[in-house]
Amino acid sequence: MALSESDLQYFDAICQELLQATDNEKRYAADKALSEFCKRPEVFANVHLLLERTLFCRLVKVSWFNFDSDGEMQFQVAVKRVIELNEGSMESCSIAVELLRSLVLEMGQLDQSCLVGRQLKVAASFRDIYLLDIYKVSIGLLKSVAENVISFNVEDTDQRSLLVGVLALSLACLSFEFASSRGTDERDESIVVLIPSSWRDVFFSFDVIKLYHTIYMHIPVVEELALNCLVQVASIRRTLFDCKKRTEMLLEMMESVIEMLSSNRVPSAPETSHHFCLLLCRLKNTHQLSEFTGASCFDKFVDKTADFSVKSFMTVDFPPGGLHYLLAYWDLMISCLAYFRDGKNKQALEKAASIITRAFIESRLERVDVLQENAVRELNDFTLLWDQMDQFSTFCRYHYASSAEWLLQSFDQLVGAYNMSFTQQSESVQTSIVESKLVWTLYMIGSAISGRSHSVASSGNDSKDGEMICRVLQLIRVTGSTQSQRRFSNIMEMAYLWFLHQFRKTYLSDNSANSTDVCEQISRSLGLPEGNSVLSVVLDKVLHNLKTFVGHEDLILHSIELLKGMSMGYKASKTLLSLPQMQYVVANHSLDQFLALSRDGDLKTLKLRTALYETLVSMVCYVSDEELSDRLKQFLRPLTVAIDGLYDVISVNDSSLFFQEGSKKAVTALARDLRGVFASLSTKQAYGTAFELIYPRCFQVFLRACEVSDYPFIPSGMFNPFDCQLWYMDSSVVSPILRFCIEIGTNRSQRVQYSLSVPTGYLLARDFSKLITVYGSRLLPTTGIPQEHIYNIRYKGMMLCFAMLRSIFTGNCINFGVFSLYGDSSIDDALRMFFEMALDIGREQFLVYPKLAKTYHDFLEALVQDYVVFVTNLKPDVLVYVLQTLLDGVNSPNTDIVIPACATVDKVVSHMYQRYYGVGGEAISVTSGLMENDNSLKVIREKPQVLQEVVTKQWKVPFVVRQIPFKILSSLLNAVLFDECRCHYSMSRPILGLILLLEDYYSRLKLQLIVSLPPSQQNFVSELMDELTKLPRNLYAANKDECVYGIQAIFVPANSLDSLQMCPPFASSLSSSQRRLPFLRT
């Protein structure tokens, strides 16, 4: 039994995932999938076909610019010969089609572990030379099928397989990455196919649209592939054709759609329906509405697509992706109507919008009757649901009076049934059905109200909005007052919050226009007093949620977001604070007020306390400067009381009370609350007031928490971190404390930049140092932690410590030289602990955890800017380790790591150069106040065998330390000369210092580079590289910039060489990025 084409594609995909994935979990899953796949008996008899095909395509790609002894590019010639194979027998044609399809896919893929710039160059060359010819081959074969479509034998396996391969080849050509400009986060419906201008005539000379359409209509077994090709044709960039040709293509595509929908070939299968809806969406995204209305078949096109939409809405198993594209299509069509002046066509679209709106509303309610209890699953997919509602809000406002009236009738009937259902003691299926229908109605009412911003406002529509808002607010008040008598419904509460979000944005925000009449209508209907009574109804619901829904993270999160939205802006905050409910909350924000956020709740819910306090404090701070201090002191009084209580516990001789679970939860809650408080303080006055209230007792409590265990005494030899829970090994305790320290140490808006008489920055630095030192000294000796817990227990806390240090080193509010000058070792102790943590982590773990590596390199960059002497004073083995991690950072595929690593290399190398060619021996650094030693010079000028001995003793492997700067220079030159790196400037910046420091090595490197180039380019590149050595022998910024410009001049010709070849790997001890070219060997 032979493997199918889909099986071969699956095999190829999991093999690539296994070889290229950097995530261990993905590699493990791919390995498991491959093992299961290989258990099939037919695998080894057929998989060699894929291996041979893959090997051929990979060789062609890698050797694309290689010359043979006769000066010909044989691998390019091979492609031409494969193209000629399609003119032979059916067997040779099938082989040619499969090879060409695999080759097109291979050329369009980018392997991030290899030279990206060279891959793009190969892909561009392949596109310009052969891709159009390959596409013509597929079109020619499809044309022969279309001309004899009646006699095509679907039962013939060979014919069917060949047709599938030809359509797949055609689709691969149209899906080729013609220009590397598509964003990774671009939505599928907005993708544009950037086909080159040389392809323009193909679409008319071969009548491509008719070709795909004919195959779709007559050969159902390949309808999905044919439809996919039509989707790509519909996505071709507008500028490829002139106005006349573009109109002709649009008309042909519209007629094709009409014929599909008028025949028995209406898309019905889930995948086909999905791609047909995508076709409609891409077609509208590519063309303007005026171009659609100019077509003679526009009315029929709108009617047919509207009928198809109505039937699709009513289909229970219609694919969710297809529904998304269908709603997006109508969203795009209707959104332009406000600016459209064609009366006849405008009426046609408005009529279609009304039909679509009514059908969508009915379908959502009817599908609940069909799905019954399973309807709740759709309503729990909030991301998809809210996306649909956003699209629905655009076209539901046309013929709004009838749509709103129908929504109101449905709502009233469902509310009556909903209230009746709760008179029963037991839950029934009918209760679930009524509830689901009511939830859908609430979502659609909220969506209809938010659509006011998309349409022209009118008093009639606003009155309908007011009527619907009144009904929903009444329901919210009734269900809130009878909450204890009803069963809890998560989907109902989420629907309430969705509605209130839309209501707030449309009628209660500072930007709401003409909203007074609606608010007055609501107040009269609900019998509310004058003033901001409507806003108080929304606030009551938010506060009710925070007090009631314990353990429901999503509800609490969206309630806090609603409160934050209500308080955005000076006017909104002032209005909200004038309400009695809000004034009471600000004055009494204790744990008893918000039971849903109680410290006894689960960890996920407890995290939301930070967001709540950030929102509350931001409102409190919207007052005059004269009132700010008093307001903050009053607001923070409950938190200062909590700090004093914990401080009293740790101050007594018997501190066993502090080891209790209640104290742990109190410390965690306090850290989260204070982090939220300081996150919203952006002025010196507000920050200073809050800091004075919590310092120093708050830090003393947190310091104690990072050094204690649940048991005051652990017998010698009985230590087991999983038998006695240590606080400093509990990330739920340590992480909030460290994150609070990061926040309070961040000098946002210069809030920590006080006058010379205020030592806030120095106090923070000293306490940060104590905290990091104590935490590290407890954490580092622990052993036996399972690998699956190592990140949460060790690396996460270390990463936050790195971020803490960076916050004070980048704040520009402290003169660190003062510490050394007056004998205070706080900063040096913290930095020593930082390097101990880095050594404990190990280079391999930095590669496994990119987030950890980024934080490490970010702090190193901040450290060396003004405190580089501390780094160069490190012991030789530690300094070697730091340089090795910098080498790993330079070679990282993550630009967020590369940029700080290069900046650190630049600073360290510049300092080493100044020391190497400057004063020897010990010297005092004026900027840091440190006594500088000769450790950094040893890395440059000591004998290799002596340095090798040092490293051998540390890592038990032979190594020449002097190779590290060589490798860094090699890696940087490799990247900036032969790869289109996205951080070219950052990687070029340290090169001048490395050239001046390693002149002999640079000379050898240059010779190896020149020899590897074609003779016609050698003199030119040699002159450019010589220019770099003629620059002034200094490392001023202007001189480094000149070096960057010089490297850019070399980069252009080096990358334009067609003869540049990929060379075999060497030196297995080097990383993959260092094995790229042989002249970069060290």
TrEMBL record:
Pfam families named among the record's database cross-references: TPR_XPO7
Q: Which GO terms describe its biological process?
A: protein export from nucleus
Q: Which GO terms describe its cellular component?
A: cytoplasm; nuclear pore
- Is Zinc a UniProt keyword of this protein? no
The species this protein belongs to is Trichuris trichiura
Q: Please give the chief subcellular localization of this protein.
A: cytoplasm
For this UniProt record, the keywords arranged alphabetically read as follows: Cytoplasm, Nucleus, Protein transport, Transport
Tell me the protein family, please: Belongs to the exportin family.
Organism's domain of life? Eukaryota
Answer yes or no on keyword Iron-sulfur: no
Q: Which InterPro entries match?
A: ARM-like, ARM-type_fold, TPR_XPO7/RBP17, XPO4/7-like
Any idea where this protein resides?
Answer: Cytoplasm; Nucleus
Q: PANTHER family annotated for this entry?
A: EXPORTIN 4,7-RELATED, EXPORTIN-7 ISOFORM X1
Task: Please state what the protein is called.
Answer: Exportin 7
Molecular function terms from GO: nuclear export signal receptor activity
What region holds the Exportin-7/Ran-binding protein 17 TPR repeats domain?
370-600
